[in-house]
Each structure stands twice: as structure tokens, then as C-alpha cells.
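This part of the workshop introduces the protein records we will be handling. Getting from the letters to the C-alpha cells is the skill we practise here. The record below serves as our worked example for the rest of this section.

…
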Amino acid sequence: MRIFTDWRGLPADARGAAVALGNFDGVHLGHRHLIRATHAARPDAPLAVLTFEPHPRELFRPDDPPFRLSMAAERAAALEKLGVTLLYELPFDRAFSLLTPEQFVAGVLHEGLGAAHLACGPGFAFGHRRRGDLAFLAQRAEALGMGLTPVPPLADSDGPLSSTRIRRALQDGYPERATAELGRPWAIRGPVTHGDKRGRTIGFPTANVPLGRHIEPARGVYAVTVHLADGVVHQGVANIGRRPTVDEGLESRVEAHIFDFDGDLYGQDVSIALHGFLRAEQKFASFDALKAQIAADALEARTLFRDQP
């Protein structure tokens, strides 16, 4: 998959694609449904996705807590696995946000990308103040000779599947619901950083990964798999939160204890996937009590993986 961060000056072989439009945060089953529909509409054309970085909400509401299900690298990797060969990851800055709906359709999609076909959900909005909607896109796409496939959202008994719904499941402590709707366990990817190394002193060394701009799920302990840079996957247990026992302040972090592993991961990018919520974060009266609880958590996580591989 090739990634382009500008719609201007594209090479000829990066134009003329069937393009799915959206933010694609999480690349969940609804997004897969949209991408399949895009390919089915024009199977003869390259399959492409147009998305934005950062997410528009990060520009318009910068003081909101982090909310991203996936960062750019994670999103790109997930899209590539779906057969997307062209990713237009357009910088969403103040100037881009001021484009009119007409400038977006005629200037970006038609002149810039030379799109042969477009596909989007019914709620896709674009242009300054989100004034462009599906009806406008349909009218202008037809006039400019671009095909358009409106794709109804994928839904179940709880309603349309969405990134918002997946965020809510994670914040409520139900990673298995997120897994069902993503089609894979939700994961936090980032570099392993140096912590205070207290875990080593009680026999449970941890890999510390900052949450960064990822959404913070329910604070507590999870059964996890840790995907290393070399492709090896290990099972483990992780705490996500502020570590009240050691009074570490206001910043939440991910601390993963990897089962049966003894190696140096500092500086490496790892992906920590959540498989089950074991318990809420709590403060312990002593490090001995904390150590005993971590041992119990590890046993419960191993049992979960044994019973539900």
C-alpha cells in the first residue's frame, strides 16, 4: 500500500481509484463493510481510502481527552490488510477545514485524486462547517463523471456499528465487545519507555507504554497479548491507570507484565491487545499485598487464555 499526504501532483498510477471516504478510526467491521462495497462497485479500479490526519475532532476540540481508537500507523496497517492499495491521508489543518464543499469535491476528489468512484456512509459530511452532505456529493459527483455508492451502516440489534460505540464499550470495561465490533482485539501501540522499575523489585517486571492520544479504557487490570516488533506474540497481564498504590500522579499509563519473558524491550514499538477485563484498579495497603494480587491476576489471565484461546 502506498500512502500519500497530498492530493496535488499525484502520479498517474495513483489516480483513477475507487475511493472510500471517512475517518476510519479503529477500522472496525463497519469500515470493512464500506471498503468491500467500494471494491464491489468498481473492481477494475485500484482500491483506495481517503482519510484525515489528525482526526478533525482533534483540531476543533483540542482540549477534549484523547479519544483515538487507532493512530495513523495502526490504521494504515489495518487498511492494508483489507486490500487497500492507495491511502490518501490528508493533513487536516485549519486551511483544509476552510475548503468549501465544492472545493473538496471538485478540487480534491475530482481534480486531485481523479477518483473514478466514491463510496461513503450516509453521515459523511465535508467542507467548511460540514456543509457538504451525501445529497450534495451525489449531485456534484454525477456532474463531474464520478460514480458514487452510498453505503448503509452495518448494524446489529444494538443499532449501527460505530467508533463511538466501540469507545463506549472500552470505557465501560468490556474489551470483548470492542473485539466483536472491531473484528480483532483493541490494542495500544507505542514505544516501551523507562518506568521506575518497581515491578522488578516484586518479581513482576513490566513493559511501560504511554497511552498517548489513544482513548483511555476503564482503569484496571486486563489479560493481554503483547505483540513485539519481531512479530512474536506473548500473553500477559497489564494494568491501565494511575497506580494509586505508588501515588504516581494524574497521568495514566499501560504497564504490561509479559509471561515467561526475559528481554530488553526499551525503545521498541509494541502493541498491547486487550482480551479481558479482570478487575478495577485499586489501592493496596502494602507492596506485599500488591504482589499477591498481581500473582492472582496473572493466574486468572492464564486461565482466561487457556479456556478461550
Q: What stands out?
A: The radius of gyration is 22 Å. The chain is about 30% helix and 25% strand.
